[in-house]
């Protein structure tokens, strides 16, 4: 049953693409929070270093900056641990879903009844266009997630330049409007 195989492979592809998109978004979140923490730390250090604050010695400033760095380190470490766990859960869910799809496809492929085979072929013929659209949507979602990750990480990729031909607007003639006076 080649249609069954293509239908299940489309479903597995969609699951994989959504898993990749989810992991990419988690990576983008991680990169964004790391950038945020780094920016906040540098601004805090710059603020304390450039100001003369009454009753705050250089030692106290150094201690405050050190405390800020420890807090940022703790938050970054927790972020890495938690997002790593999220990615792990996403991988387990995707693996379970994929194995479930494969198990159902194997069971259906093992059925020898001509009636069941006919019904399955009919259902596949009806659902294959939807599966193809789902694959295209999943591919676009994964590509969009990668664009988000690039944008959040701060490293813009070279964008493809697209040439668009525009039609020149036709020049309008000015129309002089006069109002006729009514004779009273």
Question: How do you describe this structure in short?
Answer:
The model has no long low-confidence stretch (mean pLDDT 82). The protein is built from three helices and no strands.
Radius of gyration: 30 Å
Helix content: over 70%
Strand content: under 5%
Biggest sheet, in brief?
none
Order of helices and strands: HHH
Q: What oligomeric assembly is this protein in?
A: single chain
Number of helical segments?
Answer: 3
Structural class by SSE content: mainly alpha
What's the total number of strands? 0
Overall shape: elongated
Residue stretches low in confidence (pLDDT < 50, at least 5 long) are none
* Average pLDDT level: 82
Q: What distance separates the N and C termini?
A: 91 Å
Describe this structure in words.
This protein is mainly alpha-helical. The chain contains three helices and no strands. The chain has helices at residues 2-50, 58-109, 114-153.
Notable features of this structure?
184 residues, mainly alpha
Secondary-structure topology with pairs:
Elements: H1 2-50, H2 58-109, H3 114-153
Helix pairs in contact: 1-2, 1-3
